Amino acid sequence: KFKNASGQVCQIFSFKDIKATPDPLYELPGQCLTPSPAPIVIDNGSFQTRAGWATSAAELHTPRLLFRSVAARSRGAARSETQIGNDIPNLEPLRWLLKSQFDRNVVVNFEIQELMFDYVFTHLGVTSEGCVDHSIVVTEAPCNPLHCRQMMSELLFECYRVPHVSYGVDGLYSFYHNNNQRNLQLPQTGIVLSSGYHCSHILPVINGRFDAVNCKRVNVAGSQAATYLQRLLQLKYPGHLAAITLSRMEELLHDHSYSAVDYHGELEKWRCPEFYEREVHRMQLPFSGKVPGGCVSVEERQERRTQQLRRLQEINSRRREEKLQQDQERLDRLMAVQELLEDGLLDQFHKSLVELNMDSAEELQSYINKLQIAVDQSRQKLLQSDGGEGKAEPAFNMAEYHQLFVGTERLRCPEILFQPSLIGEDQMGLMETLQYVLARYTPEQQEALVSNVFLTGGNMQYPGMKERVERELLAMRPFQSHFKVTMATQPALDAWFGARDWALEHPAAGEAEGWISRQDYEEKGGEYLSEHCSSNAFVPLKVAKPAPARPAEPSATSQTSAGAPADIAMVTSASAYVSTNATMVTT
């Protein structure tokens, strides 16, 4: 912090520009093997992947791996040359090479997903040949498409030959974990507002089960806020386009942004100059004090310029003094000639006029007046220059030129979660969507749901978010109705902790609830899901039965030759195939 010229305290911050460090290759802990192999918990997030062990050991109670869900591989490079997550120290130079397994919040690129699993298993110390002997708990998107789950199950069971797999929703795992921490009675009813990197979700939970029919998705979250902030600052500072990177914008969102409780009222506060000077965050960009191609610093150049200016001022001051002295001497001489006229010495007066090349006393008086004005002006300039010699030159501040003044952008970017129209998205905001979801329930169910409104996800960590949701709920709920809003203890990590708690309380053995065994996968298909308190609802794919073939008409049969029955059978089969396809399309 520092004080500006008016004495107000200003805040200057520097970008951290944190460089990722490669993850170590851990050895497999002994307590993860006996008495039985411990499950591996993977929070497969679109922004960050978190992986660790589901064990009660104190040293393993947190995720061992946290890395960005991105991979970088040049075209034509070998698979072994792919960089994953923390292997990439700085994302910006490789931004154009980065690939993710996600399309929004759904896994679609299973080649990248396989690389992510390889990275996780290798760094956790799993070294078994040909298979992974540990059960896997992995998160998936709400209402995950059956095809995506089928591909994920195929990857885990066929490629890694894991014994059991369990799928759950990250927001519901976080809800489960925080309810356990608060010692709430099960089963719980509530509504989860989850906002991550690509999407935000409204997840209603009725009697401990996810109501998938009434959940909704809003396609606005952290990535859109970062892109919006980058666009705003690049328009504001066109001279620093290269320095306004997406990584720095994410840092600004995480460390310097906040959610306004009253958005329009907060914008009015920013109109006040004192409020702006006090609250604006000046982000100092890195810059070099050396001149390109030289070794002279900015301070040295500034000192040289100041010395040159001082010498010029001294020279000009001497010239003004000399000119003033000459004008004063000439004025004194003219005044002496005029005194000859006043004393009546006309002969001497006219002789002096001739010497001065003047014709009359009027011309002499006019010249005296002009010269008097010039002398007075010279004296004024000389006094002003003497008083300004001690003043410092207004110098060009190189450091201030490389500062980004982040003002209203601090609240405008988080606001897109409530007003997607700010970025041109034609959809409802988070609270409008919540109101729409609540309207689908009875008044009694609505009361139960709003009595436990739960906020989770990395994009919910803005200061003031809980207060903003409470204000919006107060406006939409009936008069004197009650509601309660709770923020997750660790919005970005509680999904992993919830999945670990669930895995510890529900061991994978036999026909355990929530676990898919290899036998289930082989008998029921890859899209099969064993439901539990934090999972999606399983809706099996209904395959239409073929329509019965129509019997051939007698007239047509009687007119055929001996080879006709085979031809008729072929036509009938084709008709049945067409009917089946039509039925499936209808379904």
TrEMBL record:
Protein name listed in UniProt: Actin-related protein 5
Residue intervals passing through the bilayer: none
Primary localisation category: nucleus
Compartments where located: Nucleus
Stated family: Belongs to the actin family. ARP5 subfamily.
Subunit structure: Polymerization of globular actin (G-actin) leads to a structural filament (F-actin) in the form of a two-stranded helix. Each actin can bind to 4 others.
GO cellular component terms listed in the entry, alphabetical order: nucleus
InterPro entries: Actin, Actin_CS, ATPase_NBD
Pfam family, any one: Actin
GO biological process, one term: positive regulation of nucleobase-containing compound metabolic process
Gene from which this protein is expressed: ACTR5
DNA damage found in the keyword field: yes
